[in-house]
Amino acid sequence: MSKTTVKNPCKVITGPKTIFSYLNVNEPKVPLGGGTPKYSVSLIIPKSDTVTYNKIQAAIRAAYEEGQGKLRGTGKSVPALEDLKLPLRDGDKKGDDAYKGCWYINANSTTKPGVVDADRQPIIETSELYSGIVGRASITLYAFNTNGNRGVAAGLNNLQKLADGTPLGGHSRAEDDFADLDDDEDGFLD
Predict the structure, then answer these.
(1) Can you say whether the dihedral through the CA atoms of 134, 138, 143, 148 is positive or negative?
(2) pTM, whole model, 2 decimals?
C-alpha cells in the first residue's frame, strides 16, 4: 500500500541552515500587549538559501489566495497582496548583526511545537534549545484579519535542531565558557 500525501501549499520546511532566534519553545509566553501565551521563534534564513525564500513566497501567495474571504472582511474587495502586512522581512533593515545578509520570519503557535534532533529524536533537555542553534523549521502561512489589521502570518509547527550555533543575545552556554580552561589555570587550586 502506498501512502497518499496531500501537499499543503501554505506549509514550508526551511533549509538546513536556518538560525533560530528569540527561541521560545519550552514554555509559552504572553505576547507584548497581552493576549494568549504562545510559543515562538524568529527564523533567520541566509539570503543564499533561495530555495527556502521561493518556497515561503509561494506559501504567502497560497495563503493570500486561500484567505480571500477573511482578508475581504466586510469590504467589497480584497486588498492587493503588496498592501498587506507580510511575514518575510529583510534582515539587513533590522539593524541587528545576527540578521545581516538574511531574511527573517517570525512564527508562533499556542500549541507546543515538536522539537527533534538530526536523527528525528525528541529533544527533552531544555538547555539544548537556545537562540542561535541551526536547523530546519516547519511553518504554515495563513491569512489574518484582526481589528482591521490584515495580512499573512506564519504558524509554528515543528523544529529540527541540526547543529549548535553561536548563542544570540549575549548569552553563552556553560559548556563553551569553560571548554578551554585547565583545572588550575589561575593558580586558585595550588
Answers:
(1) negative
(2) 0.86
pLDDT at 4 over 70: no
Residue 111: DSSP 8-state: S
Q: Which domain holds residue 102?
A: 11-168
| Three cell numbers, residue 4 | 497518499
3-state secondary structure 61-101: HHHHHHCHHHHHCCCCCCCCHHHCECCCEEHHHCCCHHHCC
The number of distinct structural domains making up the chain is 1
pLDDT higher than threshold 70 for residue 3: no
Lowest mean pLDDT among 5-9, 64-68, 110-114: 5-9
Rounded Cα distance between 86 and 91, Å, is: 14
In a domain, 119, yes or no: yes
**CB atoms inside a 10 Å sphere around CB 159:** 27
Chain CA centroid to CA 87, Å: 11
The pLDDT of residue 190 is above 50 = no
* Residue 189 resides in a domain: no
